[in-house]
Amino acid sequence: MSGVAVRDPDLYPLARRLGLPTVAEAGMAEAGVTDAASADIAPGIAGDDDGAELTLARQDDRLVLAGDPRRYGHPLAVDFVSGRAAHRRRFGGGRGQLIARACGLAKGVTPSVVDATAGLGRDAFVLASLGAEVLLMERVAAIFALLEDGLARALADPETRDIAARMHLVHGDASRELATLVASAGVAPEVIHLDPMFPHREKSALVKKEMRLFRNLAGDDPDAPRLLEAALDVATHRVVVKRPRKAPPLEGPPPRHVIADKTSRYDLYVHRRLGA
Asked: Is 173:94 a contact under the CB 8 Å cutoff?
């Protein structure tokens, strides 16, 4: 996985809060130095070879993750106000969307959802835009920082304020502390949504640059079976697992129902009927 460093001193408080290295610390780690006084690089001063491929920075009033554009493309940000999120909010298909059907959103039924693998928050935003209270969990500190920034901007925009108010973000590893994170957040885990990273094949080198950046940060999810087991213990009504259409189910009990479209599939593990 690629390293992330913070170069902007204005973001050092954020780096300390989330345990992200500043650029000086990243350079020291690369050189095997543990004492800043012994390092050739002064604290807070950026070097050209600091060991971090990605930088967390503020650009155009938003937090971004940026790397070599030839490898990673445009800087990555979370945007719930404009672009893809705005288009899907207006024209996405409402409760007929596959994710809404999988999570049980129907006429008169709007369950609360725990998105235990929040990623860039796109699925959670769709569910919240349809009226669901959503708890987002993200274990990767840099991605959590982007989510936190994107939610703050969505809360400040009149068109997305009410949606963002239904999205509650926590930083933690759901595969290890799902029950604790849910209990501390106060969102009922009627539905738990999982979208574990699917291991890519070597032949699939031409992946989108955004996904390459995200995968290099988060890695694959070898602990996905453990996450499914934890989710089955915590969810009160159902667990929903998003998979590539032709991917095998996660290791564990077989899903009770499967719904799919041309590219994606949702495996449903149902405890009991929603609304009951």
From this structure: no
User: Which range (47-61, 158-172, 255-269) has the least confidence?
Assistant: 47-61
Q: Structural domains in the chain? A: 4-72 (no CATH), 83-200+218-270 (3.40.50.150)
End-to-end CA distance of the chain: 44
Residue type, 63: L
Q: What is the pLDDT of residue 53?
A: 85
- Write out the DSSP string of 205-216: ----HHHHHHHH
Q: Which amino acid is at 15?
A: A
User: What percent of the residues of the chain are helix, what percent strand, and what percent coil, each to the nearest 5?
Assistant: 40, 20, 45
Binding residues: 122-123, 138-139, 195
Answer whether residue 38 shows pLDDT above 80: no
> DSSP strand E in the chain: where?
4-6, 54-59, 62-66, 113-115, 134-138, 167-171, 191-194, 238-244, 257-260, 264-270
Which residues are known binding-site members for S-adenosyl-L-methionine? 122-123, 138-139, 195
Q: Retrieve residue 111's tokens.
A: 């369950």
pTM: 0.86
Please provide the average confidence, as pLDDT, over all residues in the chain.
85
Instruction: State the CB neighbour count (10 A cutoff) for residue 185.
Output: 17
Phi, psi of 25 (to 5 degrees): -65, -40
Give the DSSP letter string of 46-57.
Answer: --S--S-SEEEE
Distances (CA, A) of 232 to 102, 135, 244: 16, 16, 21
- Which tokens belong to 265? 């599939």
pLDDT at 221: 64
Pairing of strands 4-6, 191-194: unpaired
